[in-house]
Task: structure prediction
Amino acid sequence: SIPEPQREAWKRAQAQGFRGKDGFEKELVRHVETTLARSMFNCDEKAAYSATSLAFRDQLILDWNRTQQNQTYRDSKRVYYLSLEFLMGRALDNAMLNIGQKDTAKAGLSELGFRIEDIIGQENDAALGNGGLGRLAACFLDSLASLDFHAWGYGLRYRYGIFKQEIIDGYQVEVPDYWLDFNPWEFPRHDVTVDIQFFGNVRKESKEQGKEVAIWEGGEIVQAVAYDVPIPGYNTSTTNNLRLWSSKASGGEFDFQKFNNGDYESSVADQQRAETISAVLYPNDNLERGKELRLKQQYFWVAASLHDIVRRFKKSKRPWKQFADQVAIQLNDTHPTLAIVELQRILVDIEGLEWEEAWDIVTSTFGYTNHTVLPEALEKWPVGLVQHLLPRHLQIIYDINLYFLQQVEKQFPNDRDILRRVSIIEESQPKMVRMAYLAIVGSHKVNGVAELHSDLIKTTIFKDFVEIYGPDKFTNVTNGITPRRWLHQANPRLSELIASKIGGNDFLKDLTKLNKLESLAEDKEFRKEWSEIKYANKVRLAKLIKELTGVTVNPAALFDIQVKRIHEYKRQQLNIFGVIHRYLTLKAMSPEERKKQLPRVSVFGGKAAPGYWMAKQIIHLINAVGSVVNNDADIGDLLKVIFLPDYNVSKAEIITPASDISEHISTAGTEASGTSNMKFVLNGGLIIGTCDGANIEITREIGDNNIFLFGNLAEDVEDLRHAHNYGSHTIDPDLNKVFEEMEKGTFGTPHDFSAMVAAVRHHGDYYLVSDDFHSYIETHKLVDEAYRNQDEWVAKCIVSVARMGFFSSDRCINEYAESIWNVEPLAVKS
Ligand code: F55
Result:
């Protein structure tokens, strides 16, 4: 560090950041002309984006450094959020808004001949996630910083994020997402590296007093290199850190020994194998497929992160027993569960603590968030694979299991079966490590992400564990979304209107303040301004639709939107069958009757996991229906069916503010929470949905007259499924007509869709599409009717927005802080 007497000189020279439009322009031009080595003659939009980002990045770095120094100095408890996915989207717009300088940049850019939207649009999305789970992590980072919590995110720096989706001849085609060619938002820390070991053997060595220690040796080493991303809070100088690990061959680019021995090829091969670890995000959501590389990713990231956390703790020279007073680690699903084992290994094998003392520290440190009850999504790893890759960790897992089962046996001495049921090792062929059970045993709190979901995990998949630990270990933290990105950034005009009516921007930091809007629902003038904004947002989406699909849609039509990952449990098939039903109904009408109908645009968007054949069939059907309906002269504007390709965060920012109604129609009991439901309502759209996930709490908050609920309840699902398989299964007659039309070839080769039809008719209709079809159709009729009365419709939208305060991720983070992490916010002095 700089010696004390020289620090004054240092401070005089410190960067200050720009002020005002002129200051911004100066920084922008400086970056174009020096950092980018360009001139006014070749400054295109890409260069202007780069320079604008660099100017804002400079601002962030100042706060970021100060925040990190302050956190080190205060040495208070930190939260570490471990997530294999951070679906961040774009950073520039967010940075401008959080710093509060977007208008400055807009004016400066315009003076230099650029439109700010075009500049913002140059940025690649940081798409390091699949869907809800990854986006939740991103919203949490925003809230943690905005609320001044000392918190770090830890993830993997994938070279390829979620694939880009193209639609060719109506089918999904995956294209790699190489997003890193210019990324001003990350800082490589080539000096922050950790060596990560894989494979090898374990040897026991006797120490003094008959104590044995395990030595893990041999195998191979891969190096983890830190890349840091600043996370600015809104209207605060707190700027937290997201640390992403990238893999590299240890010993630099080549293994010099091999290289010098003339073994050039294998030295390059080693390098490539090492780099493969952080090369690509696995594109499955809610499906686990035990691939070795995925397990390698998990351990690589977890071990690097824990090493970093432990290194930071050790700097404070505190005794180990204070570890959990200084460190809270939250596991975003079971993907980072090996962190539990790794911390136990560090404490016992390396730091020499006794097993029990170490285990106490471990269990007080971790919290585990579950995001699904779907059996196919529960993570399990073959014992053999873990043994091969992480031999010492498998031993520790067996020991954890042994002590745990001994405790269970004592508690339930006459129950043999419970041991088999709760064992971390599933005695199957091959044996499997059940990661969720390991996560429960190694954490002090387990939470679900919406009330129904948290109840379901307690009564179904984790029932035995509630018996063992008592109910207090299990809790609920209903998900939330950041109002900064999902209202202020995505819907600037609505945000502005709200601010002008309720006395300023405070609601962006305390979303419950939206309740002041409620009294305005009956104000005619206000409703008019509100509708104008919704219309403008629909025009903006119509433009995007035209650009991406070539189809012209009428912004005056009712926009009905379902955007999310394509999955049978989310039931896009129910939606498209409903659309076909609507089409057939319209076709059967006389022209006069048709004229009385309400025009509708049905918008779909979402990616299918590349190996999920049925999801891809659903995409194909949506596109096939679109090409028939959109070109049918009888129908015209009465119905358009759009599949928007490559749904991602930046498109969501355009889509979400433009809905009249959005669809959240999962089979009851399958969608843990959903978060887009919250985003749509917050942006003044109503929703049609099942009694599932957070829809239930949304209903409670906004009132059941402001939501269109339909379908069977979670408690009835099991019986219905049973009846399908063991009783007589009759298909809804209207749905049958839809199937018959598909079988006639109206939407192309019937064979293409036969599996979707068979799933309902012949394979037990697991997702209850037929059971819910009638009430779905009837409820959509109610939607049409309600929409005809625009005054009442808009009033419903306003009242709903006014009552959405609960769904801020700020509320959610405060609940985690209080009930799981035991931390308090600490503001940075600037
Ligand atoms: C990704 C990879 C694996 Cl291996 C498993 C699951 C996922 C994934 O993307 N899950 C996911 O997005 N889950 C969703 O989490 C949201 C946030 O809690 C919930 O709102 C949503 O209901 C749930 O499906």
Remarks:
- The pocket of F55 is lined by residues 130-133, 136, 284-286, 288, 371-372, 377, 449, 479, 671-675, 693 (CB under 6 Å).
- The radius of gyration is 28 Å.
- The chain is about 50% helix and 15% strand.
